[in-house]
């Protein structure tokens, strides 16, 4: 087959996020061309079942015409309106108000960003401003969790605790600290839920004590760690961490960039846990990937502290040209309507047992050591030895072989380097889609055995 000239152009000019540049030059790009529902088509004509919603974001599936229409109408009417200074646009105002309606009651104010990394960066900046504004400028240290992912912008990458985001980037910053992951499959405290929760709370307390509580600003966490390998803490963990933050007098900051918008069942994972964060970051499912957008939601206390912390007439100097972009906001409003009135949240909840069962059935497979999920977010962990949970030798590059076999079997999921396979099917998945997913997945695993 003649090579697509785009492959050479890509190799010569386009830098891809999070690849080995030399390996990419060798391997070449797979060019995705169109999508419908849960399916993608590439320029080779291969139809692929997407079990990862793009990058955990296309929660409504591809080709939702009402979203396309909402974007087109807003573009025709007003493609851009600055959110700077005292200007605004109707979709952005309505979207902020809708998010406050849906979010935990503690959150009253919304700041729009372009995605999740800058939402986390913005949260750090707001928190720093808040403590400087309220007379506690020494509270400058941030705690997050090993295996956590909060983005790859300059500060969020330091909250992230995955080695490749630090190597050669001089991160983390001296103000950024980690506590162990509540990893049920490999937790030194064992697999008992209460023991895992107790261990996490104790680790947070110990870290705050080590740094001095007057020096610690905030604790950041994901309700379920996504890029770190879909690590699902026991129920009650998130609430317990929030309670500990209150007791320790540090801000409780929840990154729902992946877990938001029905990914784990309810609109937000905080809802199921009764957790009340001081700040919460959103992105991905907010616009379902149809346009870039993220958000930081904050409590009245933080907002008022910042607002009172500047002299009259002096602006709070934080903003992006595309903050509160009206086209993204119009998309966000329609995407939210699809989750609620459009029935997608309800479908996600209805399909989740099928997903969970399909993953659990694969525990029979010789490669699968653990199967875990909540809602439509799940993972399989592959191990060389089920009894010792020993990992495969990285030199085998099993995850690369799996990704190649998955493509041959026309299914896309995420094969992480430590041989965790991550899944985040769209909320529009049907029973037939799940049957196809598990048939193709089993065949993929059999082929690499
Ligand atoms: N936070 C979490 C939990 C994420 O999973 C991600 C991206 O995967 C981010 C933040 C960063 O978001 P973005 O890639 O939109 O900058």
TrEMBL record:
It holds the Pfam family Aminotran_3. Its cofactor is pyridoxal 5'-phosphate. The keyword Nucleus does not apply. GO terms for molecular function: pyridoxal phosphate binding; transaminase activity. InterPro entries: Aminotrans_3, Aminotrans_3_PPA_site, PyrdxlP-dep_Trfase, PyrdxlP-dep_Trfase_major, PyrdxlP-dep_Trfase_small. Keywords: Aminotransferase, Pyridoxal phosphate, Transferase. It comes from the Bacteria. Belongs to the class-III pyridoxal-phosphate-dependent aminotransferase family. This is Aminotransferase class III-fold pyridoxal phosphate-dependent enzyme. It comes from Pseudoduganella rivuli.
